[in-house]
Fold each of these.
Amino acid sequence: MIRWAVTGPVGAGKSALCELFAAQGAAIVDGDHLGHEILGREDIISNIIAEFGSGMVGDGSVDRAALGGLVFADPAALDKLNGITHGPLAALAGRRLDELEKEGRHRLAVLEAAVYFLLPPVPGIELVITVTASVSMRLLRLTTGGVLSPAEARSRIEGQNSLEEGWARANVVLVNDGPVSELETAASALWARLGD
């Protein structure tokens, strides 16, 4: 089974690209879902309380909104959280990819993870694709439908500025500022690589 990773900033279109791959038969491993799993582990919760205080946890689970509000506004706090979560996250991603390979049902599995270049190495990744877009386009996507306010969206975008150097190291960089048809064309061209 071939293993790829898709990374890039919030609002750029990582999930849209992964959906296009899934439509062609790829298995998708969602880094956000893995992150939720990691934050549910008792050892991780204990480490978060020790580092950030009990106010980050309510009813035995991490208050993601409170924690996000803290770390997106404080790069030092984000570094501390990353130190707690990134090792376990990479290990879990590797296990999920191994499980998919054992199932033998997919030719391609794609790990979607904005923080891919901050993680310890995930075994077997052969190609890393960054999906990026202009800040104005990302703001538009994040605020459409009222999911985030403009201020919240901008805060999330700015909170990821330190990741830009990593995203630029990808094997392939797709600029997703155009219509969906352009992303579909790019996805088809990438899928064609599986035949190489």
Amino acid sequence: MISKAKTVKDYLAELPADRRAAIEAVRKVIRQNLDKGFEEGMLYGGICYYVPHSIYPAGYHCDPKLPLTYAGLASQKHYMTIGLMCVYGDGDMQTWLREAWAKTGKKLDMGKSCIRFKKLEDLPLELIGQAIARVSVKQYISYYEATFKAPRKTKQKK
């Protein structure tokens, strides 16, 4: 479910009480562990944490008007999600997260970067905090540029 809320406060207010409590708990952990340069706001119909244009003017390569997203938090129809772009495409980070998660004894339901959960108890909150804190704004921009700004092959004119 994509929200049309313009602010995080409005987004949280429209959630059912049980979902709101879970999202607020995860949000608190993210905010406590987020590097100082990242900002919080609404993007893509959910709560996002991103590198603002004031730090990275180029923005997101697919739509430079948007800031560079680092993480997201949302309530979907059948579950809630935490999106960790610092895990997407970074084999070392993904391996670390999967191994650390396995040690918690909790089941990991994860795609390429999104962790799905149905209730707060499904998450090892301390590990979520560690994952968020693991990458600074500077490191994330370097990773992003190395991954997404690499020169592309162009077709040569005949």
Amino acid sequence: MSQLASPGQLRMSLIRWALFVIPTIMFLGFLSGTMSGSGENNRWFQELIRPEAQPPGWAFGVVWPILYFMTGLAFAIILNARGAPQRGLAIGLFLTQLLLNLFWSPLFFGQHQVTNAFYLIILIFLTALGTTLVFGRIRKAAAWLMVPYLAWLSFATILNYQIDQLNPDAERLYVPAASEPIGG
């Protein structure tokens, strides 16, 4: 017998990885955004001057789950590639870029550190690019699943830069709490 696992067993292993990894990554992305108050409802963000290329708020709620799904599937493919050279490096790079990604929303929306978030997103892009290149040496499909993420990161980097340029005092911008009469 030359095979340790049948094609069906390998496929089931990938499915098991995907069923664990994809929801975990999507949940972590959701948690990061929710805990940091990211999005259009963030009062500090509402006060910023935003670039003309800024998509409507709902677009981020559509794009990010798709990207987290695709990158999660790419990661599951790599996790399933047991014995592949550079698999450990690929796993380490992916987890590094994911952790950096999850820290961006708290840095930008939570701590209002627009300039530092810009430098962080550049680091995220470079780490994600390295991840994609290593994924490509292991499984081409995994690398291709990362390409939309890289494209979005490029766009998000430009937006972050433009917001930083349009709002040089964003870190010090004070937004008073919403005031509603008691009872209503």
